[in-house]
Amino acid sequence: MSTIHSLAIIAVVSVCTVFLRAFPFLIFGGKKEVPQTVQYLGKVLPPAIMTVLVVYCLKGISFLEGSRGIPEIFSVLLVAGLHLWKKNILLSIGLGTVCYMVLIQLVFAA
């Protein structure tokens, strides 16, 4: 693959990304009222997506072998507790990830 071809791909992806980021502002920008459906989706989708991600992350836990899900459960409880306490998603997920990695690499290393 040539350098020009690579640069063309990067340019196309960049233009598409900028367009997709600007598209909602073009549609709902200004003083237009955001439709009720979009407001509703903005309220219900984030918790629904987080629930799906938690279920997906925990679906492979085996309680009969290895660490028996202790690192996963402890990390999930840490994330939930931090989020309820500090209301900071970045802090909660970041520290939960660090906690999980420390547990599986140092504490429950096979």
Would you give an account of this structure?
The chain is an all-alpha fold. 77% of the residues lie in helices and 0% in strands. The chain is built from four helices and no strands. The chain has helices at residues 3-28, 36-58, 70-86, 89-107. The N and C termini lie far apart (42 Å). The model has no long low-confidence stretch (mean pLDDT 89).
What is the gist of this entry?
With 110 residues, the protein is an all-alpha fold.
Topology:
Blueprint: H1 3-28, H2 36-58, H3 70-86, H4 89-107
Salient structural properties:
110 residues; mainly alpha
> In whole angstroms, how far apart are the ends?
42 Å
Strand content: under 5%
The proportion of residues forming helix, as a percent range, comes to: over 70%
The residue ranges in which pLDDT falls below 50 over 5 or more consecutive positions are: none
Order of helices and strands: HHHH
Number of strands: 0
